[in-house]
């Protein structure tokens, strides 16, 4: 006999918003906020896993993860 245990959870299915993301993790068709410049991460990375960005004389490393997320480190 099988009994249901209160408080157990099932994995949540992916929503359509989650499924409609680009390889970089951005929502499909997402635009930058008004008044901000937008640059596609693919243009910055140019096929590489990581790129160095110099901001105010300080180098930062922008890298893409296997899951399509971005990490910016100083």
From TrEMBL:
Amino acid composition bias (Polar residues), ranges on this chain: 1-14
Gene3D superfamilies: Complement Module, domain 1
Annotated Pfam families: hemP (PF10636)
Region feature (Disordered): 1-31
InterPro entries: Hemin_uptake_protein_HemP
Segments of skewed composition (Low complexity): 15-31
Protein name in UniProt: Hemin uptake protein HemP
Source organism (scientific name): Comamonas terrae
């Amino acid at each position: 006999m099988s009994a249901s245990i209160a408080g157990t959870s099932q994995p949540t299915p992916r929503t359509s918003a989650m499924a409609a993301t680009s390889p970089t993790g951005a929502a499909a068709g997402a635009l930058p906020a008004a008044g901000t410049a937008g640059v596609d991460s693919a243009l910055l990375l140019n096929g590489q896993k990581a790129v160095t960005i110099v901001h105010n004389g300080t180098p930062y490393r922008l890298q893409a993860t296997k899951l399509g997320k971005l990490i910016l480190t100083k």
